[in-house]
Amino acid sequence: MARRADEYLVTARVKLPRRKTVRPLRQVSRRLLMALFVLALTVFLVYADHDGYHDNADDSVDFLDSVYYATVTLSTTGYGDIVPYSDSARLVNVLLVTPLRVCFLIILVGTTLEVLTERTREEWRLNRWRSNLRDHTVIVGYGTKGRSAMQTLCATGLKKEQIVIVDPSNKVIEAANAEGFVGVVGDATRSDVLLRAELQRARQIVIATQRDDTAVLVALTARQLNRGAKIVAAVREEENAPLLRQSGADAVITSASAAGRLLGLSVLSPSAGTVMEDLIQQGSGLDLIERPVIKAEVGRSVRETDDLVVSVLRGHRLLGYDDPAASPLQLTDRLITIVRATSPTESGLAN
């Protein structure tokens, strides 16, 4: 319980999907090997021409002296006790040892600089993400319901860059990052957390929290921050649905009741249950979609359209296909139709 409490008590922050990077230990090991290679190469160059060097201690330069000279030369400017005095030794120092010293320092300092610049790069990515984010979808809660909502949205062609996940669990957000989604760690009932998700500029908000009271608070906060966004929420108990609508939700799905009705339908008719499950699963089989009335359909009856129309949305009224008021169709109507599912790639080719 203590570990779970610590997991949820995390400062709200935005976590962008990480690019594929090498592990830090592997990076350090690689740089260490590169530094050792530069050192070994310098030792070889010095020892190969050790007769051209002068040691103030004993006038001769052996292998140990070569290692010592290479070490102090690469890491510092040298102590002056061992110096090149022949023309070849000095030429090697100018053309080879000096560039190797620069490479050695770059390797050592580069690790420190990378750590210092990593935060700057992340801040730059975050600022660019904020400036480009418009009309996106915010999903609050990334459990079973939230993941299913995400899969449905992606199946309709919504890009991952246009979805922001908000969840209090750091591990959940890390999983969302691994899937390519931007995540915000924090309590979505707080306005500052939702502002980090740029909710004030979102087009759609999906509330899929585990508790109904949390969903109500999130809906109140979200509606206060964004008056024009479409808010869809899920609740466990049907008695809480009216309260959630009063809190600002445009549509409320009772998850327990919906699952129960689907179970009952499957008992009475397994085939009908299969069709219903197919309809609510976007991207395969049959899809239930909402689309506007095209000009060629204006003035026609519902049965004269090419698609199988289930309902007609006229203003705030939802008319059944068999309602006499549904026909003739008007230009401002929207149709709820059943169509054969097409992948986003096929839709793009068709357009």
Question: What this model shows, in words?
Answer:
Helix content is 48%, strand content 17%. By secondary structure, it is an alpha/beta fold. The strands form three sheets. A seven-stranded mixed beta sheet has the order 1-6-5-4-7-8-9, sandwiched between helices.
Report the uncertain regions.
1-10, 344-351
Spatial arrangement of strands, main beta sheet:
1-6-5-4-7-8-9
What proportion of the residues is helical, as a percent range? 40-55%
Measured between the Cα atoms of the first and last residue, the distance is 53 Å
Total beta strand runs: 13
For the largest beta-sheet, the strand count, sense and barrel status come to: 7 strands, mixed
The radius of gyration is 33 Å
Order of helices and strands: HEHEHEHEHEHEHEHEHEHHEEEEH
Task: Give descriptors for this structure.
elongated, 48% helix
Summarize the structure.
With 351 residues, this protein is an alpha/beta fold. The chain has helices spanning 2-8, 24-48, 63-75, 87-132, 144-155, 170-178, 191-196, 212-225, 241-246, 255-268, 270-280, 344-350; strands at residues 13-15, 53-55, 82-84, 137-140, 163-167, 182-185, 204-207, 230-235, 251-254, 286-292, 308-314, 317-320, 334-340. It is built from twelve helices and 13 strands.
Strands, helices and their partners?
Elements: H1 2-8, E1 13-15, H2 24-48, E2 53-55, H3 63-75, E3 82-84, H4 87-132, E4 137-140, H5 144-155, E5 163-167, H6 170-178, E6 182-185, H7 191-196, E7 204-207, H8 212-225, E8 230-235, H9 241-246, E9 251-254, H10 255-268, H11 270-280, E10 286-292, E11 308-314, E12 317-320, E13 334-340, H12 344-350
Parallel strand pairs: 4-5, 4-7, 5-6, 7-8, 8-9
Antiparallel strand pairs: 1-6, 2-3, 10-13, 11-12, 11-13
